[in-house]
């Protein structure tokens, strides 16, 4: 049975690269056979930086959009 993918959501004032890659979280997960689902929240890392404050209120939409429909994943955030 394949391992569930793992969804990684970075913290405030961070990015996927800074929060998960740089400190070395991603490689051990991949080495253990986990598929990593990357989430970049609006305004961080390479994600668009909206000027409408309402866009940040919908940050959960960015998380949901990163997970393929019907996928069950473990999540770390």
Explain what you see.
The chain has 77 residues and is an alpha/beta fold. The protein has four helices and three strands. Strands 2-1-3 form a three-stranded parallel β-sheet. The longest helix is centred in the last third of the chain and has 8 residues. The chain is flat. The two termini are 25 Å apart. The mean pLDDT is 85.
Discrete helix count: 4
Q: Strand pairing plus helix content: what structural class?
A: alpha/beta
How many E-type strands?
A: 3
- Kindly state the percentage of residues in helix: 25-40%
Radius of gyration (Å): 13 Å
Strand content: 5-15%
Described by strand count, sense and barrel closure, the largest sheet is: 3 strands, parallel
Oligomer classification: single chain
What separation lies between the terminal Cα atoms?
Answer: 25 Å
Which word captures the global form? flat
Name the strands of the widest sheet in spatial order. Answer: 2-1-3
Q: Which residues form runs of ≥5 with pLDDT under 50?
A: none
SSE order, as H and E?
A: EHHEHHE
- Overall mean pLDDT score? 85
């Amino acid at each position: 049975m394949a391992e569930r993918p793992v969804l990684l959501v970075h913290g405030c004032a961070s990015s996927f690269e800074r929060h998960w890659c740089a400190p070395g979280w991603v490689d051990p997960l991949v080495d253990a056979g986990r598929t990593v689902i990357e989430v970049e929240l609006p305004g961080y890392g390479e994600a668009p930086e909206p000027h409408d404050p309402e866009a940040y209120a919908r940050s959960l939409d960015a998380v949901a959009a990163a997970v393929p429909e019907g996928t069950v994943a473990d999540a770390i955030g």
